Fold these 2 entries.
Entry 1:
Amino acid sequence: MADITRRFGWRHLRSAPTAHIRHHKRGRLAHDGAGLSFWYRSLSAALSEVPVNDRELAMAFHARTADFQDVTVQATVTYRISDPAEAAARLDFSVDPDSGAWRGAPLEQIATLLTETAQQHTLDVLARTPLAGALVDGVATVRERVAAGLADEPRLPATGIEVVAVRVVAIRPEAEVERALRTPAREQIQQEADRATYERRAVAVERERTIAENELASQIELARREEQLVEQRGTNTRREAEENAAADGVRAEAEAARKVRLARAEAESAREVGAARAESQAAWLRVHGEVEAATLHALAATRLAENLPRIDSLTLSPDVLTGLLTKLGRPAPDTRA
């Protein structure tokens, strides 16, 4: 909408670059173009504002397929007014010279024209297409048909309207039908999921079996090695016992030999000691045999005295002393004094 200001009974209009302004003054065209700015009097001015930019028109309508299924079509048409003079002549784009607002609804008329035309061509296509085909290839088919139909529509160029692009967003059936159509795919997906689950479980079971077999093989190998270890320990123990027995035998033999040698040495020593004693005894006897009896008696007494306990005093009677001295060949003492 153009900007209009008031100054001393005059009006000043300033339009946007995307708005085409047509100013008629007393039936004659005074200004014609986009992005204009000028002064005018409201009582003698007739103004029209035609937008020349691209506009998006979203539309949604129902259609019926060949198998009598209701579908909803969502589409968008991009259009622009290529000939503002024709559009202003065919549609009411006049604006209030005081406020700049449209007096009619020209864009709604264009929207109705485009929507009905697109709907007509869409119905023609879907009426000959079953639901499955409409859902699979219907978007491209409807888009091509609507674009061709709008291009061939004679009212659009006569009104100065040019269709830039046509887009069909979606073709959707009713909610119940859509759920029913989704059921086979969902069941198939669920079956695939179940199959994947079963395969995963089978793989898991196979892996668990492999792990169990590996553990069992490890236990068997461990038991076999333990058996070898026990056998080796028994062999080592038996060998150690044999070695100890052999060592004990060697030690016993050495000890016996040592004892034999010791006994022989002791016997030899005893023989030599005995011989020495015999020789000493024989010499002793020879010496004693050559000595007088009195000497032997004296030696005997000496030996006896050596073996007797200590005697501090000895009292001898005269008779005993006389007899002893007589035997020794000494004169008897005089006892009369």
Entry 2:
Amino acid sequence: MDKAQQDALKKAAGIEAAKLIENGMIAGLGTGSTVRFLVDELGRRVQEEGLRFTGVTTSRRTQEQAEGYGITIVDIDDVDHIDVTIDGADEVDKNFNGIKGGGAALLWEKIVAINSNRIVWIVDESKVVDTIGKFPLPVEVIPFGAGQVVKKFEAKGYKPVLRLDAEGQPVRTDENNYVVDLHLDRIDHPEALAEDLITTVGVVEHGLFLNMVDTVIVGDPNGPRVMTNSNK
């Protein structure tokens, strides 16, 4: 699938998901290429249809995009609930376990998600897999002692790689932390891995989002299709 086809599927999923936002809602807005299409469509609805809602964003770049359309964005601590959060995902399997954090926003994404009444992911069909893990698993770590955390991960066979930017400097998250990507290829025991990662000192959060999502809207060549998590 080339990039133009993939973008068309992402856009279709984003436009479909935008229908879930209604007047007066408090909506969590995720981060990433698919969410950009969602925010574009929400911006159109605000300007053309008079849609009025309040957004809580999972990154500064989503906030800037949304505010450019006149969408009201507030701090997560200024709301008492979030009706629905719409976000992308890097991988999702049939058990509704997912990997997020390709865009280095996993910590804010998870905080917004766990404070939401409903979680919706929008993905193109290439993100739907049998077993998660082919996409490198992002782990957010504080800079102090990050090299020691990487050594611990190496000893466990997690194949960690500190994420670097184009200049060869460590990528910084919105909280100014580092991201270590684990090249695991497949994750057969995600719950055990999640527990091991989050209890490692120096780890702030990991990109395993396990059985958290309620609905996945998949951009498909035949039109957006919906996967519903019956375990939620």
